[in-house]
Amino acid sequence: MVIDYLNLGFRCGLEIHQQLEGKKLFCSCPTLNSDKEANIRFERRLRAVAGETGN
């Protein structure tokens, strides 16, 4: 079975979080970063949608 995502109008988003060195809000455990340098590259493309433009 092959799914035609373009024909379906399927869209998917990705949410990315940044790991920070600092203090945790609800916990006293340490904040340790696992890597000091990123080993990936990504491009950020932003497109405003209805409801985000303030109109």
How would you portray this structure in words?
- It is elongated, with a radius of gyration of 19 Å.
- Helices cover 7% and strands 0% of the residues.
- The model has no long low-confidence stretch (mean pLDDT 76).
- The longest helix is centred in the N-terminal third of the chain and has 4 residues, at 5-8.
- The protein is largely without helices or strands.
- The chain has one helix at residues 5-8.
- The chain contains 1 helix and no strands.
Summarize the topology:
Elements: H1 5-8
List key phrases describing it.
single chain, 55 residues, little secondary structure, 1 helix, 0% strand
The first-to-last residue Cα distance is 42 Å
Average pLDDT works out at 76
Per DSSP, the total helix count is: 1
> Could you name the ranges where pLDDT drops below 50 across 5 or more consecutive residues?
none
The fraction of residues assigned to DSSP E strands is: under 5%
Helix content: under 10%
Order of helices and strands: H
Largest pleated sheet = none
Q: What does the radius of gyration come to? A: 19 Å
Q: Label the structural class.
A: little secondary structure
What is the assembly state of the chains in this entry? single chain
Shape: elongated
The beta-strand count equals 0
